[in-house]
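re: the backbone from monday

yeah here it is again, tokenized this time
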């Protein structure tokens, strides 16, 4: 694979359920990148899978699999060039359907794997299910909620994943008019404050993003911050 430029793809491939992303920030850790991609793309439809790789040749790339083609198409149009961790995303449809989709359709054909000469036979024969289990998302943590219904220009976010950062939240909220900043609470995981220019703009963001799925197992809990 050759290095990608910052501009949009020269040619958009035929639509399918899988999007190919590149020009991603290579300094972001795999799990953080995966959760960030899920957070910003799940607003367009149900996501079946997000694939990020660690290999040198695959750095800065990822695949997002939607449950249907219209959702993938809308996501491509809306997110093309989106500033993601300080770099504009380049998005195209994947050249081939993902394994998740072909298995659902019954057209899946296993790919032949080349055994690595420096790897013991037992490791080469390790069942895929065991590998998948290692990457399974942790069970959601239960947090006590504190809901305030008095309008405010500042939102209080709860039930955030431990890995959540202000940059991840900013990417989610900056699509709403009036967004100013995200403030994490030092020494306290799982909570943050999101400031807007006025109460009305904060209310619109709350209505749109409350109970938004940040990960497959964790939803965002929003309320107005107490004055």
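seq for it, each position gets an aa:
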């Amino acid at each position: 694979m050759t290095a990608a430029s910052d501009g949009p793809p020269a040619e958009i491939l035929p639509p399918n359920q899988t999007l190919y992303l590149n020009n991603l920030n290579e300094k972001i850790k795999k799990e953080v990148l995966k959760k960030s991609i899920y957070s910003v793309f799940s607003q367009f439809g149900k996501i079946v899978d997000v694939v990020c790789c660690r290999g040198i040749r695959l750095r800065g790339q990822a695949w997002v699999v939607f449950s249907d083609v219209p959702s993938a198409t809308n996501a491509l149009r809306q997110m093309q060039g989106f500033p993601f961790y300080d770099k504009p995303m380049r998005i195209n449809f994947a050249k081939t359907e993902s394994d998740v989709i072909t298995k659902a359709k019954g057209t899946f054909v296993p790919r032949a794997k080349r055994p690595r000469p420096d790897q013991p036979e037992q490791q080469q024969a390790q069942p895929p299910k065991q590998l998948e289990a290692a990457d399974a998302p942790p069970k959601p943590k239960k947090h006590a909620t504190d809901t305030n219904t008095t309008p405010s220009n500042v939102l209080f976010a709860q039930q955030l994943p431990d890995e959540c950062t202000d940059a991840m939240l900013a990417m989610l909220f900056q699509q709403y008019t009036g967004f100013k900043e995200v403030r994490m609470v030092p020494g306290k995981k799982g909570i943050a404050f999101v400031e807007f220019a006025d109460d009305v703009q904060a209310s619109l963001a709350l209505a749109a993003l409350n109970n938004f799925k940040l990960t497959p197992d964790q939803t965002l809990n929003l309320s107005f911050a107490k004055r």
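The chain is about 25% helix and 20% strand. The longest helix spans residues 30-41.
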